[in-house]
Amino acid sequence: MTDKSSKMASIAPTQDIEIELATRPALRLWQGREKTEKKHGILGLPGFCSRVRSLEQAIREDDPYADFHFAQIEEGIEHLSEDLDAELADIEDFIKENVPSAMRLPNVASKNPVVVPVRFASRLGFQLVYQLLKVDQIVLKILLASHIGLIETKTKFQTLARVEKRVRGVLHLVYKYRHTGVSRDDMAANNQRAQKAKELMGELEQGYLEGTTRSPNAPSLPQTRLNTLGADLPNSDKKTGSSKQVNADLESKLDSVLAKAEAEAETEA
After folding, report:
1. Does residue 53 form part of some domain?
2. How many domains are there within the chain?
3. Could you tell me if residue 208 is inside a domain?
4. Please, what are the averages of pLDDT over each run of 10 residues along the chain (269 residues)?
5. Could you report the per-residue pLDDT of 170-183, keeping only the tens digit for each?
6. DSSP letter (8 states) at residue 7
7. Category of 149 on φ-ψ map: left (φ > 0), alpha (ψ -120 to 50) or beta
8. Distance, CA of 135 to CA of 138 (rounded, Å)
9. Strand, helix or coil at 190?
10. Residue at 103 is within a domain
11. Containing H/E element for 133?
């Protein structure tokens, strides 16, 4: 029987994913700001994803610090999601409690929303996109509450600034990772490259050094590391090792295809 899988074309999106942003704070978080002679740059979501792409590539090259910081960013996004859910629930409850039942409020939306294409293939990036859309809804509710006189102008701006600062705090987590080209083998040998990494980013937990503690959403480790981890498994786990290896190989190939599609999209832009 002929193997047709080798003749299949690479996976690529047929069109851009798009999101609609209705508020200035959400658009600022998306765009960031280019660095100029007079103003410092501000990291936006596409810039964040560009740095995450480098982080993910370092994971594929067996950098334990990249694995650690991937997990830290993911945890930061999870906490951000919880905070924004609470923020949105609070403002919605506040409006319901303070608006008389005889008053009918219209749906709030922008007359001219900005539609932006999402041209990256980062898991962490998409997780942040969902939070950005949540921010958009929070801002709309805050503007509505201010428009109908439920909150003071000072409170409005303080709340908007707090939400925006919270998101930027998560975006800036990507700056904590410093690329040194270190690998787990370097760390085991405690060579000059390992010492430089420790100097820049501190000590790591043993699980990250071994490759046993990882985010389930992180890219696959290199084949040599997977083989080492498989050799360290108990006999009961080795029985399923081959199927796990196949899954890891498929995931690695998919990651490379997505990264290639992202790079091509950026070139076209």
Report:
1. yes
2. 1
3. yes
4. 57 77 94 82 92 94 96 97 97 94 84 87 91 96 94 95 96 96 95 96 94 92 81 43 43 52 51
5. 999 999 999 999 99
6. G
7. left
8. 5
9. coil
10. yes
11. helix 123-147
The residue with tokens 């006999």 is 235
pTM comes to: 0.79
Q: Provide the domain limits for residue 61.
A: 15-216
The secondary structure of residue 114, as a DSSP letter, is E
Contact 60, 252 (CB under 8 A): yes
Q: What are 6's two structure tokens? A: 């080798």
Q: Are 64 and 209 in contact (CB under 8 A)?
A: yes
DSSP assignments along the chain, one per residue: ----GGGPPPP--SS-EEEEE-SHHHHHHHH-B---SSS--B--HHHHHHHHHHHHHHHHTT-HHHHHHHHHHHHHHHHHHHHHHHHHHHHHHHHHHHS-TT--PPPP--SSPEEEEE----HHHHHHHHHHHHHHHHHHHHHHHHHTTSS-HHHHHHHHHHHHHHHHHHHGGGGG-------HHHHHHT-HHHHHHHHHH----HHHHHT-S--TTSPPPPHHHHHHHHHTS-HHHHTTHHHHHHHHHHHHHHHHHHHHHHHHHHHH-
Amino acid in position 88: L
Rounded to whole angstroms, the Cα distance separating 144 from 160 reads 13
33 in a structural domain: yes
